[in-house]
Amino acid sequence: MTTRQQGAIPVFQLYGETHQWPTPDLLHCESIAERSRLHDWHIRPHRHADLVHVLHIAHGEVRLTFDDDVQRVQGPLLIVVPAMTVHAFRFSHDVDGHIITLAMPLATHIADTLHPQGQVLARAGFYPLAEQAERAPIATLVAQLDAEYRQPAEGRDALLEALLNSLLVLASRRATRRQARRSRHHERGEAHLARFQQLIEAHYHQQPSIPELAEHLGISSAHLSAVCQRLAGRSAQQLLHERVLLEAKRHLTYTNMTIGQVAERLGFKEPAYFTRFFKRHVACSPKEFRQRQP
Q1: Distance between terminal CA atoms of the chain?
Q2: How many Å apart are CA 172 and CA 71, to the nearest integer?
Q3: Residue-level pLDDT at 18
Q4: pLDDT below 70 — which residues of the chain?
C-alpha cells in the first residue's frame, strides 16, 4: 500500500514506509529505537487506515499527540493508538520500549475474542504503570512477544496470539482502573466546586481572597482554580468576581443606595476601588450603569 494523503495528514502503513506491509504476519513488533532513531526520535503527525498500535515504554519520556491533545508522559506506560487516530510521538533519546502493530483483521479478531476487554484497542489512551505488580508482568509479556516474533518456531502464531491476548487483558484492566480513578477525581472536583460556590455565597461581601477560600476547602488555591476552570470554564477568581458584580448590579438597579454605600456593602474599603473594579469588568462606571437602567 502506498502513502495516501488525507488532507494534510499522511496515511502510512508503518511510519515513513510507502511499500507493502513488510511481513506475512498480521502482527509486527520492533523496538521503538529501531524506527524512531531514523527520524531523529520524532514521529510526525500521521494516521493508519487499517492498523492499531500498542506501545510499551519501559523507560524514557514521550511527548504524545492524539489529534489536538498533547501530553508529556513518562515511562513505564502503555499507549494504545486505534486506526484512523492522528498521532505523533517525540521520544527522549534514552527511550526503551517496543511498538506492537496489529493489522485490522487481527485487531478485530482479538476485540471479538476478548470482548469486552478487547475494546481497549478502540480507545486512544495512555496508561502509566506505576505499580510493580502491573509493571513487571507487562514488561515480561512484551519481552516474550518480541523474542517469539523474531524467530520461527513451532506453534509461533498460537503463542504470539496468546501473549498478545494476555497483554491486552492486562492493558484493559489498567485502563479500567484509570477510568475509575478519573471518575472519582471528577466527583471530588464537583464536590469542591459546589462547596466553593457555597462559600462565595456566604462570604462574597467580605472580599475574601482565593487562598482563604481554598484553605476552607482544604486544598491549594492552584488546585481550586484548576477545578473551577475544568468544571465551570472560569477561574476561581472569575467566579468570585461574577458574584460580586451580580450583587453590585442588583443594588444599582433596584435600590437607591449611593455608590459609596454599595461599595461598603460589598466590602470595598473605598468607593474608588469599587468603581475601578466595576469599570474593569463591565466597561462602564457604576454611575453610568445605573443611568442606563430603565
Answers
A1: 70
A2: 21
A3: 55
A4: 1-8, 12-13, 16-23, 178-187, 294
Dihedral sign computed on CA atoms, order 180, 181, 183, 187? positive
Query: What size, in residues, is the chain?
Result: 294
pLDDT at position 20: 61
Sequence-ordered list of residues with C-beta below 8 angstroms from that of 288, at least 6 positions apart, any chain: none
What is the spatial distance between Cα 215 and Cα 196, in angstroms, rounded to a whole number? Answer: 11
The answer to pTM > 0.90 is no
Torsion sign across C-alpha atoms 153, 155, 157, 163: negative
* 82-97 pLDDT tens trace: 988 999 999 999 999 9
Fold topology of 238-292? Arc Repressor Mutant, subunit A (1.10.10)
The full set of domain ranges for the chain reads: 4-181, 184-235, 238-292
The partner residues of 47 in beta bridges, in order of sequence, read: 11
CATH superfamily of 4-181: Regulatory protein AraC (2.60.120.280)
CB atoms within 10 A of CB 230: 12
Q: What is the pLDDT of residue 7?
A: 45
Nearest-angstrom CA–CA distance, 176 and 117: 9
pLDDT of residue 234: 83
How far apart CA 145 and CA 148 sit, in angstroms, is 5
Give strand pairing partners of 5.
10
